[in-house]
């Protein structure tokens, strides 16, 4: 009997990936033919070719950006995806309850079950964890431009550099223009590193969360940070929240955005965000 095929995709630049030898991976799937691929630009064609061959098992070892790159190709297919978190934030993996240690995650994913989750779209681009505009998008763009290694501490440094001078972004929602510090569209509850921007968000509830932080006195910086990591942002007096399936923002004053933490530029001053329910199968 032919062994089923599994495609194991790893981001070679992820530091934690050095602990994942091919022999170690093969030991967790002894009854599979495992094909190893590296994540890089242009990989989409090969993944789509595997799907055309009828291969339905994929495992992605990388951060949220790598997960997004592969997951968007598997939406609305019969394929399922496991995640071995190797990034600095690992927002989706954490939200799914996966271990952040690669060896532990290997054991969980190789013995896991399939769960269907929702997918968000920002101007047609899929996101699985969070997307947004405002301060977080500005930091994502700064992070992408700087010549340094990826990692939590470098991101925190950018936050400190930008936070105290940032004045916000204007956007029109329904009939009124308002200034915001940040607007986050959340499928999962957190950005990553257990920073919970939408503590009540669920990846399979058929809804997206819109978490809006309003301009606030900068001396509230520590309070805001503590509330993010303690899941108490709902009590912050400069916070607004709503659930939605389809939402549009217009007349944005800044075209910077992020999708799953990766910097993107909007083509115009309008953001249209919607959900597709149970569109991606993940292994947990």
Automatic annotation (TrEMBL):
Gene Ontology terms, MF aspect: ATP binding; kinase activity
Q: Which domain of life is it from?
A: Bacteria
Q: Does the keyword Transferase apply?
A: yes
Q: Give the UniProt keywords, A-Z.
A: ATP-binding, Kinase, Nucleotide-binding, Transferase
- The identity of this protein, by name, is Diacylglycerol kinase catalytic region
The record ties this protein, via InterPro entries, to: ATP-NAD_kinase_N (IPR017438), Diacylglycerol_kinase_cat_dom (IPR001206), Lipid_Phosphate_FormReg (IPR050187), NAD/diacylglycerol_kinase_sf (IPR016064), YegS/DAGK_C (IPR045540)
The GO cellular component terms are:
plasma membrane
UniProt key word Metal-binding: no
Q: Which residues form the DAGKc domain?
A: 1-126
Q: Name one Pfam family in it.
A: DAGK_cat
Origin species: Leadbetterella byssophila (strain DSM 17132 / JCM 16389 / KACC 11308 / NBRC 106382 / 4M15)
């Amino acid at each position: 009997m032919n062994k089923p095929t599994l495609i194991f995709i790893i981001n070679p630049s992820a530091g934690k990936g050095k602990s994942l030898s091919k022999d170690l991976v093969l030991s967790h799937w002894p009854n599979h033919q495992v094909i190893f691929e590296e994540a890089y630009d242009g990989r989409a064609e090969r993944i789509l070719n595997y799907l055309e061959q009828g291969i339905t098992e994929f495992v992605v070892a990388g951060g949220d950006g790598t997960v997004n790159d592969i997951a968007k190709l598997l939406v609305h297919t019969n394929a399922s995806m496991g995640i071995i978190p190797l990034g600095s934030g690992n927002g989706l993996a954490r939200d799914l309850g996966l271990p952040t240690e690669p060896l532990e995650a290997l054991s969980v994913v190789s013995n896991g079950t399939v769960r269907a989750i929702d997918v968000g779209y920002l101007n047609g681009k899929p996101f699985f964890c969070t997307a947004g505009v405002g301060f977080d998008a500005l930091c994502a763009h700064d992070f992408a431009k700087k010549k340094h290694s990826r990692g939590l501490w470098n991101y925190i440094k950018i936050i400190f550099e930008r936070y105290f001078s940032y004045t916000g972004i204007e956007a029109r929602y329904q009939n009124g223009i308002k200034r915001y510090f940040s607007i986050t569209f959340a499928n999962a509850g957190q950005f990553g590193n257990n920073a919970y921007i939408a503590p009540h968000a669920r990846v399979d509830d058929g809804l997206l969360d819109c978490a809006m932080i309003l301009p606030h006195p900068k001396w509230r910086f520590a309070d805001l940070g503590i509330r993010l990591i303690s899941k108490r942002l709902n009590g912050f007096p400069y916070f607004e929240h709503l659930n939605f399936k389809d939402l549009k923002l217009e007349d944005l004053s800044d075209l910077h955005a992020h999708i799953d933490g990766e910097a993107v530029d909007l083509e115009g001053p309008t953001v249209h965000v919607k959900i597709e329910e149970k569109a991606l199968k993940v292994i947990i």
